[in-house]
Amino acid sequence: MTDIIMLLLVLFMIYIMAGKAKLDETGEHFFDKKNSNAMRGFWCLVVILVHIPATYGNRIQDLISSFGYIGVTFFFMTSAYGLSLSMEKKPDNIKSFWKRRLPKLVITCWVINIMYAIIFLLIGGSSTGFFSLLKIDLWVRWLLACYLFFWVAHIVFKKNKIICNFLIFTLVIAFSFIFYYMHSMGGYTKTVWSTECYGFIWGILLAWFYSQIYQFFKDKWMIKLVVSCGVSLFFGISYLMFKPVPFFGDYLLKIILGFSITLFIIISNVKISYGNKVNQFLGSISFEIYLLHGMVFGLVEKLSNNLLSSGMFILVSIVVTIVFAMVTHILAIRIMNRVNKILL
User: Fold this and answer.
1) pTM for the complete prediction?
2) Is 19 inside any structural domain?
């Protein structure tokens, strides 16, 4: 049964990415909102599969989860890409930077915390303290750190784009390396996204050299796409071989592999336009899915008394996560609209 469920899930994920995809020579679609949203919709499901509890793991899930960090890298990238485009169009938005972006991140976390507390209290779990309701997800804190670097650089070097961007790159790299070092030495035991946060740099570079990237990969597109795929495979194999090697394997090679796979995705989008109703829907709630799925695993485990097979657990967890993410998204949007009326 598990094999059948996982096979159907793989086919569903292929549809999410490739369904209604079409060749487009105009270039107007290249990494626009619709296409980036479609990719986020795909990668958020991959991220769910990464964190499936080991008890419910299986071979197919384990294979897919190997690419999970690319999904997080991609989210960092699209966040930076959106910020960069916003600053290019309206530089004065930096004055209201936090008013525009902080509510979405913080309010969504708080809504999820409250939902978590209510649901687990109803099913017989322990009560949650008040301050736990105000907790900001650890991954969101990493994203906020990158936002802070972006904001500081644009405040200090607003008129010099080159210095501004290189300051952001320097701060992200330093932040990444410091936490990688502390984590590898055992001084910091919480989850780190030391390699994934480089996606923030890739997003700024994509916005900065958008036209040049498109023009370069447009010519002899198929050849460059195949070469990019080959390069990704090479670094993928290299990473598997040298993953146990400190710094070179688990840091540098992982960053390079993440960049090469991300570049392959970008090259594919040069002439392939992605987008269907399913990936657009999932993309619109991808942030909530990123934050919610861990909570859902605990809920499904508790309600099922650990009686579900691997495939059923994964299927139920994905469905429940999507439903909860949709509800959270609606609630958070309504609250944010009211907050924005006050702040903006």
Assistant:
1) 0.96
2) no
